[in-house]
Amino acid sequence: MSLIYRGLRKALFSSLNGIRHGRLDVVDQDEVTAFGEFDSELRATIYVKNPLFYRYVATGGSLGAAEAFCDGLWECDDLTTLIQLFARNSDTSDRLGKWGNAIANLGRKFTHRMNRNTRDGSRRNIASHYDLSNQFYSLFLDETMTYSSGIFASPSTSLADASRAKYDRLCQQLQLTASDRVLEIGTGWGGFALHAAAKYGCHVTTTTISKQQLDYAAAAIASAGLSDRITLKLSDYRDLEGKFDKLVSIEMIEAVGHEFLDTFFAKCDSLLKEDGMFAYQAITIPCQRYESYRRSVDFIQRYIFPGGFLPSMGAMNASIGRATDFQWVHSVDFASHYAKTLKLWRSNFNANRDAILSLGMTPSFLRMWEYYLCYCEGAFLEKQIGVSQVLLQKPGNRRPIALPGLTEIGA
C-alpha cells in the first residue's frame, strides 16, 4: 500500500475511533482493526478489497463509501447492521459525511438542483427509476406489484398480505363505499386502484406519469374486468381536474420536492368536495434533521431517485396550513413495518440476481440496489426515517371517524 493510501487510512481510522455504540471491524490485508464496544451485539465487519476505497471516502465522504461499495472496493458481512451502527454513532457518521472534495460536493448539489420536480423534470425523474422495466420490479415485489411499505399483522404475514392490509387500512380510514368517486395520485402498478375497486366497489380515477407503469396497470385492470370502475390517466397531478369524494396518495409525495409542497397540497384541496377526505402515506425525515437534509445530497438522491425528497411531518403540516383548509384527523408512524418490507424485498432480490442480470443489468447495478435496500432497512430500524399514514378532512366532513388499529412489529 502506498504512503498516500496509508495516510488516508490513518485519517479514516482516526474518525472511526469515535464509535461508541456497537462494534466495527475493518479487515485490510488480513489485518483487523476494531472500533467501538468489544462485546456489542451490534457488530459488522468491513473487508477492504482495494486501497482505492480510502480515496473514495476521502474525496466523497459517506457518499464516496457508497460509491466504493458499488464499484466492489469493499464488502461487508451485514450491510444493514453497518447502516444501523453508523446511525447510532451520528457524530462519527456526520464527520464522515462532511469529508470530500468541495468541488465534487458542489457538483452533486448542482446535479440535484437540475432534477427539480417541474412537470418536465418530474417526467424525467420518474422515468429514470420506475421505467427500468416492469419485469425487473416483478422479480422482487409481491404479486400485487406494490412498491411501498406493507402492514404486517404478525412476523409471519406474507408480503402480499401486508400490501393488501396497507390498502385496506387506507380504504377503511376513508370509509370507502360503492358510491364514492376516488382519486389516486400516483398509480404505481395499479395495486391500490385494483384493490379498492374490487373490494369496496367504488370508482377510482388514478394517475401516473410513468409510461411503463401505465401500460402494466392498464393490462392488469383489463384482466381483472375492472375497466368500468377504474379510469387510468397519464397526467401530472398539477393538471388534474374535477371533484372527488375521497383522495389517496401512497408514497408519491417523495417525488414532489420541498418547493412544490404547497402546490401539491393546494391541488389536492381543490380536487375534493367540501365534505371530502384525503389519506396519504409518506416516507418522512425527523423535523430536527429537515433543514440540513434539504441542503445535502445523499446516496438515494444521487443514484436511486433523482429529484427524490423526504418531507418532515412539520414541513407537511406547515404547508397544509398555508395552502389548504384541510383539518388534520390522524397520523401514525409504522417504520418497523417498512424495515420488514425492505428485508423481504431484499430476500427476493438476492434470490433473483441471475434473472436480473439476464435483463441486462450490470453487477455494479446489483450492488447499488443491494446498498439501497440495506441503507433504507437500516435507517427505518434506527428510526432515522419513518413512514406515516395521514388522514385529513375538508371542513364539511361530518362522518364519524373510525380508525383501524396498527401494531408495532419487529423486522
UniProtKB/TrEMBL annotation:
Signal peptide (from-to): none
EC class name: transferase
Coiled-coil blocks: none
Transmembrane found in the keyword field: no
Catalytic residues, chain numbering: 376
GO biological process, alphabetically ordered: lipid biosynthetic process; methylation
EC number(s) given by UniProt: 2.1.1.79
UniProtKB keywords: Lipid metabolism, Methyltransferase, S-adenosyl-L-methionine, Transferase
GO terms assigned for molecular function: cyclopropane-fatty-acyl-phospholipid synthase activity
SUPFAM superfamilies, sorted: S-adenosyl-L-methionine-dependent methyltransferases
InterPro entries to which the protein is assigned, alphabetical: CFA/CMAS, CMAS, SAM-dependent_MTases_sf
Family, per entry: Belongs to the CFA/CMAS family.
Protein name per Swiss-Prot or TrEMBL: Cyclopropane-fatty-acyl-phospholipid synthase
Organism, scientific name: Stieleria marina
